[in-house]
């Protein structure tokens, strides 16, 4: 790990500091962890990409039920395969950092929960969301009746314009009233 | 998102930045911009440095990923307390202890700094030292050691004034820090919010804790989320079943009555034990067993251990919703600790008054003795220039020095509290975990899943213990300057010890709680405890006369007279006048009235804001209803025309 290719250039470092919410120490740590995920050949590529499986093997993401969605949301890959460059990775850490604002976090949370990427949270998205939260095993899942009841309750609470979906502003309105959200929507390396 | 055209953007900005400051002011403008940029960079570097200085970040993060954010919030609270105590220690040490040690008279030079002759042969015994008698008692740890000279040393340092100001300043600083933290906490996301308005939405969108990195904890979290979903669905569906309202009410009254009885019983027990310890103090120390000597502390710690589980069992009668039951439990434990502490204080006051009585007689005896010596000397040698009596400091008759006695009591209480806490962790968690792990192989039922199993980390118990420990430190710091240093050591070892204990002996909670609004609740408790520990100290400073022969205020009528003396002698005359006017009741009463009016006004304003809020919400609801009506009518029109505009 002593080659110049794997060290972060000073000007890039200060650039990243200005563009993200991360401190210098966090950026350097992120670079180190990112380099560990790269395979040998990829190290010398100018903008290396880490495939999604490797990203999901990070201990901070391994136990997260939304890990695949997180990868997809922050990925800038044309093939939509959830792979991340270093800048995508920094984006991810910045949005999940301590100093990120509520607007940023709620914006990204909305995109993570939007499973079909259509810009609103409809019944299908909410159902997938609940299934992620209750674990993958069959005995922890909710019954169809319970699911239906739950989704109708949620739409009743958050859907202000009664169109059957939760759009970004309704979502942000709900999230801004939550005292827990900012402190729990955090990932620290 | 990070735009990948950053270099081009930066070049553009740099090129045209200077052009903004046209004409004469161009150079000045460019200079200002450069300074602003440098300032931003400096702030950023300083922030980086500050975050790098925060200790134990890794350790807490590990605890957090295993146990969730609520257990970690205890350790964050502990770290915050450590920071607070470190500052208090710096004040006490730098401004009181260090000057006395470096510029004051050494041990053995004057009576208050020397062990009396009668106690000298036992002063080095371990048992005496552990009781904070002997050499400990006559050291910088306690109030009695400090001399009352107005200024000491080359720098003319005013020690008595410094002692008083530091004693009061400790409370002032703590108050400032606690309120600042409370304000910061309530800023983030607001405490309270609309309870019950968004229950389901919150559960859905905000219940996952993204800091969890451990699969076992994640499984627990899944289970608790599922349970909470099911619970709320059931809650929403069924109405309140009034099974038997009268029975429930009767049970609740009964439970409260039982708890009041036990609270009263514990208060009486403490009073009784402190009275007994006063009688023991009059007996010969050798005849008392260790138990009898430390009875008070032992009983208080025991009560603190036994009563909370007792309250929990009685509370089962009440059948409250778990969240409400937790609040009742916390309130009761708080009342228990408070009652115990104040009973202890009252019993201590009795002791102080008794000592004051004794002191009066000793003081009179000393003055009489001195007058006798002077009259004998002058009549024998026929001079008026009489040297002071040549008695070794250890032989002088000493007053009982109630402040040091009070300081010793607080130090003993703190030490026994530390011992009990550590013992509980060792036995209740570590030993239990060892037994469950190793006996499981040869036991009839599954120890890990069944009865003892592994312990869970008791967050509320630990946090309350920490708060009350801090209350005792605040009370005792004025009489025992070494107490703050002791507490710093205690918090440091607690951090490492409890981190180790929680990682090796505890399992994550079954219902993984979130550390949300509770933060400000605990800060509020700390604030209350701060006020309650301020009261006794201020009362003693204002009312009780200091001992005549020990401590920095000896010889004065009241402790705060030091301030008056300094104002009269050292500061210019007009400042004295200002103070005289400021303490005039005619000025203070209108000021108090003004503050009451201000509170009333602010209260009314906040109510108005709340009303305005509700009105706005209603308007928004009406507006969207109108919109959706418009939409649905548009939709039906569009449908009938065969077109529907895609949004």
Order of strands across the widest beta sheet of chain A? 1-2
- In total, the number of strands of chain A is 2
Show the largest interface: A-B, 59 and 62 residues
According to CATH, what is the topology of the largest domain in chain A?
Recoverin, domain 1
Overall radius of gyration of chain B: 33 Å
The number of strands of chain B is: 2
Low-confidence stretches of chain B: 189-194
> How many helical stretches of chain A?
11
Q: How far apart, in Å, are the first and last alpha carbons of chain B?
A: 25 Å
Order of neighbouring strands in the sheet with most strands of chain B: 1-2
Q: Say what oligomer this is.
A: heterodimer
Percent of residues in helices of chain A comes to: 40-55%
InterPro entries (chain A): CIBP, EF-hand-dom_pair, EF_Hand_1_Ca_BS, EF_hand_dom
Domain EF-hand (chain A): 101-136, 146-181
GO molecular function (chain A): calcium ion binding; magnesium ion binding
Protein name (chain A): Calcium and integrin-binding protein 1
Can you walk me through this structure?
Chain B: This is Transmembrane channel-like protein. Chain B: Belongs to the TMC family. The complex is a heterodimer of chains A (189) and B (647). Chain A is built from eleven helices and two strands. With 189 residues, chain A is mainly α. Chain A folds into two domains: 86 residues, EF-hand (Recoverin, domain 1, Orthogonal Bundle); 84 residues, EF-hand (Recoverin, domain 1, Orthogonal Bundle). Chain A is globular. Helices cover 71% and strands 1% of the residues of chain B. Chain B is globular, with a radius of gyration of 33 Å. Chain B is mainly α and 647 residues long. At the A-B interface, helix 1, helix 4, helix 6, helix 7 and helix 8 of A face helix 2, helix 8, helix 9 and helix 20 of B.
């Amino acid at each position: 790990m002593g080659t110049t290719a794997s060290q972060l250039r000073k000007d890039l470092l200060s650039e990243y500091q200005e563009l993200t919410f991360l401190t210098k120490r966090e950026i350097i740590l992120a670079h180190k962890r990112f380099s560990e995920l790269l395979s040998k050949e990829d190290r010398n590529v100018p903008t290396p990409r880490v495939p999604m499986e490797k990203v999901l093997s990070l201990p901070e993401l391994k136990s997260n039920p939304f890990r695949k969605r997180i990868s997809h949301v922050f990925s800038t890959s044309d093939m939509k395969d959830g792979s991340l460059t270093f800048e995508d990775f920094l984006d991810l850490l910045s949005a999940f950092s301590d100093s990120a604002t509520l607007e940023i976090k709620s914006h990204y949370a909305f995109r993570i929960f939007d499973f079909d990427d259509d810009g609103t949270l409809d019944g299908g998205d909410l159902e997938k969301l609940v299934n992620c939260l209750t674990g993958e095993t069959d005995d922890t899942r909710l019954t169809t009746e319970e699911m239906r009841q739950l989704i109708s309750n949620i739409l009743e609470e958050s859907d202000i314009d009664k169109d059957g979906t939760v759009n970004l502003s309704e979502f942000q309105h709900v999230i801004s009233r939550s005292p827990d959200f900012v402190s729990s929507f955090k990932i620290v390396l | 998102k990070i735009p990948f055209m950053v270099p081009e953007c930066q070049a553009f900005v740099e090129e045209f930045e200077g052009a903004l400051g046209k004409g004469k002011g161009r150079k000045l403008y460019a200079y200002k911009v450069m300074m602003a940029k440098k300032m931003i960079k400096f702030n950023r570097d300083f922030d980086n440095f500050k975050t790098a200085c925060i200790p134990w970040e890794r350790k807490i993060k590990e605890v957090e990923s295993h146990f969730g954010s609520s257990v970690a919030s205890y350790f964050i609270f502990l770290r915050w307390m450590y920071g607070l105590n470190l500052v208090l220690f710096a004040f006490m040490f730098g401004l009181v202890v260090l000057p006395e040690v470096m510029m004051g008279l050494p041990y053995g030079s004057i009576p208050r700094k020397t062990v009396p002759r009668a106690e000298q042969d036992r002063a080095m015994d371990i048992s005496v030292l552990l009781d904070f008698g002997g050499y400990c008692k006559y050291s910088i740890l306690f109030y009695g050691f400090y001399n009352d000279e107005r200024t000491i040393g080359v720098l003319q340092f005013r020690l008595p004034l410094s002692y008083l100001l530091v004693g009061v300043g400790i409370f002032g600083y703590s108050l400032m820090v606690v309120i600042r933290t409370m304000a910061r906490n309530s800023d983030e996301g607001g405490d309270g919010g609309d309870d019950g308005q968004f229950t389901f939405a919150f559960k859905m969108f905000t219940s996952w804790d993204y800091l969890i990195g451990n699969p076992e904890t994640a499984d627990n979290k899944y289970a608790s989320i599922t349970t909470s979903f099911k619970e709320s669905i059931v809650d929403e569906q069924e109405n309140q079943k009034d099974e038997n309202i009268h029975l429930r009410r009767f049970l609740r009254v009964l439970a409260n009555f039982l708890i009041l009885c036990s609270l009263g019983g514990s208060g009486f027990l403490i009073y009784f034990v402190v009275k007994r310890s006063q009688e023991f103090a009059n007996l010969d120390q050798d005849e008392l067993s260790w138990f009898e000597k430390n009875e008070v502390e032992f009983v208080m710690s025991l009560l603190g251990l036994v009563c909370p589980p007792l309250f929990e069992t009685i509370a089962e009668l009440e059948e409250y919703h778990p969240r409400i039951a937790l609040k009742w439990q916390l309130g009761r434990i708080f009342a228990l600790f408070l009652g115990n502490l104040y009973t202890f204080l009252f019993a201590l006051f009795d002791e102080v008054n008794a000592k004051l009585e004794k002191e009066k007689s000793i003081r009179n005896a000393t003055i009489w003795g001195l007058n006798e010596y002077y009259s004998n000397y002058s009549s024998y040698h026929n001079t008026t220039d009489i040297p002071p009596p040549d008695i070794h400091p250890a032989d002088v008759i000493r007053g009982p020095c109630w402040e040091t006695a009070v300081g010793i009591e607080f130090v003993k209480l703190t030490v026994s509290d530390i011992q009990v806490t550590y013992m509980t962790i060792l036995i209740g968690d570590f030993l239990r975990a060892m037994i469950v792990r190793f006996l499981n192989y040869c036991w009839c039922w599954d120890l890990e899943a069944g009865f003892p199993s592994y312990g869970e980390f008791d967050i509320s118990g630990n946090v309350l213990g920490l708060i009350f420990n801090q209350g005792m430190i605040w009370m005792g710091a004025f009489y025992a300057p070494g107490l703050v240093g002791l507490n710093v050591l205690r918090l440091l070892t607690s951090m490492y010890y409890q981190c180790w204990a929680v990682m090796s002996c505890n399992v994550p909670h079954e219902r993984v709680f979130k550390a949300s609004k509770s933060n400000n609740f605990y800060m509020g408790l700390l604030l209350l405890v701060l006020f309650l520990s301020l009261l006794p100290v201020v009362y003693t400073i204002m009312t009780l006369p200091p001992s005549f022969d020990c401590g920095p205020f000896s010889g004065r009528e009241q402790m705060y007279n030091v301030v008056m003396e300094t104002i009269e002698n050292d500061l210019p005359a007009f400042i004295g006048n200002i103070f005289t006017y400021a303490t005039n009741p005619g000025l203070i009463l209108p000021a108090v009235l003004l503050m009451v009016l201000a509170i009333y006004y602010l209260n009314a304003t906040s109510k108005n804001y709340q009303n305005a809020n509700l009105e706005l919400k209603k308007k928004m609801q009406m507006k969207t209803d109108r919109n959706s009506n418009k939409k649905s009518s548009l939709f039906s029109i569009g449908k009938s025309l065969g077109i529907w505009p895609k949004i």
